[in-house]
Amino acid sequence: MKEKLVRFSITITEELLKELDEKVIKKGYSSRSEFIRDIIREMIVEDRWQSDDEVIGVLTVIYDHHQRELTQKMIDIQHSKYVNIMCTTHVHLDHHNCLETIIIRGKPSEIQNIAIQIGGLKGVKFAKLTKTAKVEI
Ligand code: NI
Q1: Cα four-point dihedral sign 119, 62, 42, 36
Q2: Which residue intervals define the domain Transcription factor NikR nickel binding C-terminal in the entry (predicted)?
Q3: pLDDT band at 2 (very low <50, low <70, confident <90, very high)
Q4: 1 lies in a domain?
Q5: 96 assigned to a ligand binding site
Q6: What's the whole-model pTM score?
Q7: Is 98 annotated as belonging to a binding site?
Q8: Could you write out the three-class secondary structure of 85-124?
Q9: 72 C-alpha vs ligand 1 centroid, how far in Å?
Q10: In this structure, are 20 and 86 located in the same domain?
Q11: CATH code for the domain of 90
């Protein structure tokens, strides 16, 4: 089902318009409209992360393969009853380093809690949480 599109005009300074157009080109958007639609969706996702709604986080972790019991500790943390681990992907980067992405569904506070716990483990060299959510519009 195709959603109805509406057209509206906005008033901004020439300077701001120049900035907007530069960003549209730099980020590879086909139009100002597409860029602005994505900005609004990004704000919706940010709001969800400030709420108690269900969101999705992608935790990227790089850790020392040789750190004793680290993988078991990471798995124990993921077995939290408050979140749903949707999938994990493991890549053996080199002899010492593993990279893992963990896709987590749950409440923002619980996902952040897991990200902090895993990020703080001995042997974890890098941990970054990417915040996203289902946006139906
Ligand atoms: Ni590995």
Answers
A1: positive
A2: 56-131
A3: confident
A4: no
A5: no
A6: 0.86
A7: yes
A8: EEEEEEEECCCCEEEEEEEEEECHHHHHHHHHHHHCCCCE
A9: 13
A10: no
A11: 3.30.70.1150
Same domain, 26 and 91: no
User: Domain for residue 9, yes or no?
Assistant: no
Cα 40 from Cα 11, distance rounded (Å): 17
Neighbours of 90 (CB within 10 A): 11
Same domain, 32 and 85: no
The closest alpha carbon to 57, from 83, 81, 76, belongs to 83
**What are 55-70's pLDDT values in tens digits?**
999 999 999 999 999 9
Which residues constitute the domain of residue 80?
55-132
> Both 113 and 67 in a single domain?
yes
Is residue 87 a known part of a binding site? no
Q: Which residues surround ligand 1, an ion (CB under 5 A)?
A: 92, 98
Total number of domains constituting the chain: 2
Give SS3 for 39. Answer: helix
Q: What kind and span of H or E run contains 40?
A: helix 32-50
